[in-house]
Amino acid sequence: MNARSITAPLIAIAAALLPAPRASAQERTTCTAIAFTRDAEGARAAAQLMVLLESAVRRNGAFVYVDLADAADPKGSERRFSLSQDAADAFAHAKEAYDGLEFEGAADHARRAATLASNGPLADRRESLSSALLLSAAARYYTGDEKAARNDFDLLLAVDPGVWLDPRAWSPEVEAVALDEKFRLQPLRKATAHVDARPVNARIFVDGSFAGISPLDLPGLTPGAHRVTAQAPFFSHADGSLDASGTLTLRLEPTEAGRPLAQAARKANDSFGSTAGDEALRALGHVAGAQEVLAASLEAHAGALTVHLERISVADGHRQGAAQGSIALDSAAGLNAADALIRSALRDE
Predict the structure, then answer these.
(1) Does pTM top 0.85 for this prediction?
(2) Among 95, 97, 129, which residue's Cα sits nearest to residue 115?
(3) Residue 177 near residue 150 (C-beta atoms within 8 A)
(4) Is residue 216 classed as helix, strand or coil in its secondary structure?
(5) ω into 161 cis (within 30 of 0)
(6) Each residue of 258-306: pLDDT tens digit?
(7) Domains of the chain, start order
(8) CA distance 307 to 327
(9) Do residues 294 and 282 touch, judged by C-beta distance below 8 A?
(10) Please, is 53 exposed, middle or buried when counting C-beta atoms within 10 Å of its C-beta (0-12, 13-18, 19+)?
């Protein structure tokens, strides 16, 4: 399977990771997810499937998702959450200053919000970083510093190339500068960068936006340095810098907190579908702090993929849901079919 063959449709599905919940957090069940395979050729497909599992759980209003990467790095997760709170506070101050026509203060607060957001949780980094950069650019424009405003728009377009400015919220002058920068950068997006991760296939985020699963080609990046983050269950995040035509290999390090999670996952993989496998999934969920575990076992044979899904209650081992079938991860239609199969496992039996 080509390394780039599923990236665009996978990103489209992953873009909906954080919908508005239909119930309060107190009323929802915490659920983690894991995908594994015993076949070396299926390792990258399993990492791709993890994106679909997480997206399906997050989009289901009955659940609160527990990320195994965060569970394996609780200190890092706590730090990123704290930074996101600080970023939200800084952005609120920036908006208050902007609404009060205090543009210097608005720009300073917005840039601080952007700096904090760039180190916050990956799940909402793109949205918070984009909002902060946009507000900073607009505020800089109204201070008379158009050069700084254009620089902020360049950073914004690196994070979100398809950003759209709502004319009801932004003046025609600000919109014109943003469009001018967008058109200026477009012909410069000619190079292709490459990123890989070791020792496992990892999710790759570029400037806070999910880009795909390693190894990964990245065509069309804007000129200049881009921040790249690799994320995988049981490991700490790995960060690096990459230019538009560069090559980067990130190494993820296992964490102490991730070791019991990885051990339980290996046991579940070895005996998936059996009583011992269910007990291993319960142990995984217990260590992660989740009430349920959605697990997928993937078999790859000559390019064909077969998946078996189980949703297990951590408290009593009851099988809450199950599904199985052949899937394809090389097209939008195949990904949507796989997503539908996963959602069927999230319905109670």
Answers:
(1) no
(2) 129
(3) yes
(4) strand
(5) no
(6) 999 999 999 999 999 899 999 999 999 999 999 999 999 998 877 678 9
(7) 7-72+257-345 (3.40.50.10610), 74-187 (1.25.40), 191-251 (2.60.40.1120)
(8) 7
(9) no
(10) buried
